[in-house]
């Protein structure tokens, strides 16, 4: 089968021809239809999990995906042959990832039955970004009419968070780099947009919203930028960073809740996302579709942090 993998930590991603995985106890074999790309994928290349989980090489990349169950091991009860599934396929050993035509994954992994109303390509775009967006919003405890500043809004997490917040009546201030991005975010529900190429975001927010904002989701800023943006919050506000640059002692001193954020997946979380999708409440922002041979270049683009919507790998 074809797969994108690395031969060592910090190695160069390559399109490889590898053996089709064999079914093992407690697992299912999935014929992958699509895989969603996330910044976490290249962080795995850099070794973010090497001290936490066993790795195997060549290490097939990828966490998010969607596909069809081709076979199940004896005793498996959650899934049967022919089921459409989606979710986070990451498991031990790291290296049996979703950037492949086939994957063997434990029945107890963070996967579930796919949404019924969307394609596999759309479903593959959802897991990590959709889950992260929902949990970020839940953690901020915002209310209808509150102002939420999202930095890095045009990427996958930001696009989902904008829509989910808007549905709750929260007024989103989305940061963008051009007119096209502003129009796109308005269509997704942003109440306001700020072009960070024109002037520093903090300066523009202070000028337009002098009383401050109620919450911040920061998906891009370095430590100094995140710290500066905390001054935009009203008393009792909250802020999260997914880049892990928060000084949580500083935040506590200022009476700000939030801090460094890491999403936690489970089958139940993805059942909820599937239900939201099937209700028609969110638009899945698939911006780019590529094939496995294009993945190495797409990973380089992701490292540059200029993503718009989601990039999804289509297997056929």
UniProtKB/TrEMBL annotation:
<protein>
    <submittedName>
        <fullName>NADPH:quinone reductase-like Zn-dependent oxidoreductase</fullName>
    </submittedName>
</protein>
<dbReference type="InterPro" id="IPR020843">
    <property type="entry name" value="ER"/>
</dbReference>
<dbReference type="InterPro" id="IPR011032">
    <property type="entry name" value="GroES-like_sf"/>
</dbReference>
<dbReference type="InterPro" id="IPR036291">
    <property type="entry name" value="NAD(P)-bd_dom_sf"/>
</dbReference>
<dbReference type="InterPro" id="IPR013154">
    <property type="entry name" value="ADH-like_N"/>
</dbReference>
<dbReference type="InterPro" id="IPR051603">
    <property type="entry name" value="Zinc-ADH_QOR/CCCR"/>
</dbReference>
<dbReference type="GO" id="GO:0016491">
    <property type="term" value="F:oxidoreductase activity"/>
</dbReference>
<dbReference type="Pfam" id="PF00107">
    <property type="entry name" value="ADH_zinc_N"/>
</dbReference>
<dbReference type="InterPro" id="IPR013149">
    <property type="entry name" value="ADH-like_C"/>
</dbReference>
<feature type="domain" description="Enoyl reductase (ER)">
    <location>
        <begin position="11"/>
        <end position="313"/>
    </location>
</feature>
<dbReference type="Pfam" id="PF08240">
    <property type="entry name" value="ADH_N"/>
</dbReference>
<keyword id="KW-0521">NADP</keyword>
């Amino acid at each position: 089968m074809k797969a994108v993998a690395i031969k060592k930590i910090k190695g160069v991603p390559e399109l490889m021809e590898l053996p089709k995985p064999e079914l093992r106890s407690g697992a299912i074999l999935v014929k992958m239809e699509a895989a969603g790309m996330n910044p976490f994928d290249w962080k795995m290349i850099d070794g973010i999990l090497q001290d936490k989980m066993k790795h195997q090489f060549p290490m097939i990349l990828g966490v998010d995906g969607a596909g069809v169950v081709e076979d199940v091991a004896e005793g498996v009860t959650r899934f049967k042959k022919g089921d459409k599934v989606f979710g986070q396929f990451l498991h031990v050993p790291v290296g049996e990832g979703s950037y492949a035509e086939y994957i063997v994954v434990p029945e107890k992994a963070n996967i579930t039955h796919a949404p019924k109303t969307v394609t596999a390509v759309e479903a593959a775009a959802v897991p990590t970004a959709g889950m992260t967006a929902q949990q970020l919003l839940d953690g901020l405890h915002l209310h209808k009419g509150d102002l939420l500043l999202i930095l890095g809004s045009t990427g996958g997490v930001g696009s989902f968070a904008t829509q989910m917040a808007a549905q709750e009546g929260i007024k989103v201030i989305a940061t963008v780099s051009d007119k096209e991005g502003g129009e796109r975010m308005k269509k997704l529900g942003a109440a306001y947009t700020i072009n960070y190429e024109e002037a520093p975001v903090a300066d523009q927010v202070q000028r337009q919203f002098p009383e401050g904002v109620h919450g911040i989701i920061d998906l891009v800023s370095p430590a100094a930028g995140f710290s500066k943006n905390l001054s935009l919050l009203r008393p009792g506000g909250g802020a999260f960073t997914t880049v892990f640059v928060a000084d949580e002692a500083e935040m506590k001193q200022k009476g700000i809740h939030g801090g460094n954020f890491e999403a936690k997946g489970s089958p139940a979380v993805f059942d909820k996302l599937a239900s939201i999708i099937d209700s028609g409440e969110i638009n899945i922002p698939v911006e780019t579709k590529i094939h496995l041979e294009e993945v190495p270049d797409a990973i380089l683009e992701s490292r540059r942090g200029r993503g718009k919507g989601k990039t999804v790998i289509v297997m056929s």
